[in-house]
Amino acid sequence: MSQPSFLPHYTYGDYCQWQGDWELHQGIPIAMTPSPFGRHQLLVTRLAWLIQSEIEANSCDCQAIVELDWVVSDDTVVRPDLMVVCGEIPDRHLQSLPAMVIEVLSPSTRTNDLGYKRELYQRERIPHYLIIETETSVVTPLTLQHGHYISQTIETASLTVNLTDGCTITIDQQKLFR
Fold this sequence. Notes:
There is one protein chain. By secondary structure, the chain is an alpha+beta fold. The chain has one domain (34-176): tt1808, chain A (Alpha-Beta Complex). It is 23% helix and 35% strand. The chain contains five helices and twelve strands. The protein has helices spanning 12-15, 38-57, 110-114, 116-123, 173-176; strands at residues 22-25, 28-31, 62-66, 70-73, 76-78, 82-86, 100-105, 128-133, 138-145, 148-151, 158-164, 167-172. The protein has a six-stranded mixed β-sheet. Strands 1-2 form a two-stranded antiparallel sheet. A hairpin with a 2-residue loop joins strand 9 (138-145) and strand 10. The longest helix is centred in the N-terminal third of the chain and has 20 residues, at 38-57.
């Protein structure tokens, strides 16, 4: 039996009509259910609060936004756990480049977050990608250098990220994982 010659290729217009939680990876729909577990959501909430507090303390023109759809292209829409958006905040979905994307790993998203999304964020040139391990309480910061992500070594209990010129924030890992 031969392989079907037609595979559907969905677009952002199709995506806007769907019910439920989805992402769109190069025209392929990806279901986002069930919802994340308690520790995952606690870390996302705590991290958003820590980052937003730093943004406000440093008078940065940025915002920490939880679970907002980012329209990468007409056939790719992702919903990171957390993004930092600098400049104008969208009324609807984000269609510009975020300054930082954060994914909190869970068993159901781990492969996607470390594979497809890491490659996507690197290809789209997201300056900072933080990966949070829920089970081991480890933060892995990836910084874009010469078009590739370089993993930083964190030698202190805090992580410093330069979001934009004049906007540097520090994330206290002890507060995040308390």
